[in-house]
Amino acid sequence: MKFAEQSVVWPEIKEVAKPFYEGMQQHKIMIQQCSNCSTHLPPAQLVCDHCGCDDLTWVEADGSGEIYTYVVYHRSFHPAFNDQVPYIVALVELKEGPRLMGQLKLKEGQIYKVGSTVVTGFHKIDKNNELLYFQLEDGDS
Ligand SMILES: [Zn+2]
Predict the structure, then answer these.
(1) What residue ranges do the domains of the chain occupy?
(2) Which side of the chain, N or C, has fewer Cβ within a 10 Å radius?
(3) Above 80 in pLDDT, residue 48?
(4) pTM for the complete prediction?
(5) Residue 95 Cα to ligand 1 middle (Å)
(6) How far is CA 27 from CA 2, 42, 68, 97, 100, in A?
(7) What's the CA-to-centroid distance between 117 and ligand 1, angstroms?
(8) How far is the CA of 93 from the centre of ligand 1 (A)?
(9) pLDDT digits (tens, 9 = 90+) for 63-107
(10) Which neighbouring-strand residues pair with 40?
């Protein structure tokens, strides 16, 4: 496969992460929860970061959170993003605690900062896959 011919950048999905990616197909954010200490964990963990327990279950996250940090890309590092620069990638702390990364899509004139409340959206990238993104809470795109 020639890298430049790919239309999207998509990881090889490991078995442990399948519930997360299958959740996105249904427009759900799936995270893990420890059965011992109830800590919520980002996908895809084998053991709890807090107590080391390996009995983790998948639960649906609310899908909202706050911008923890972000970066603005002014240069494309893959042809699939050539027409999107500049674009924002945010690390969002979900209401449940885990942090997820995704593109932050804004409407013209919207102002964002660390701590802004965001909600999750999804866009179809091919016939089998949906990819999450974030938008400001009052956005409707
Ligand atoms: Zn735990």
Answers:
(1) 10-136
(2) N
(3) yes
(4) 0.88
(5) 18
(6) 30, 17, 22, 19, 15
(7) 27
(8) 19
(9) 999 999 999 999 988 888 889 899 999 999 999 999 999 999 999
(10) 33
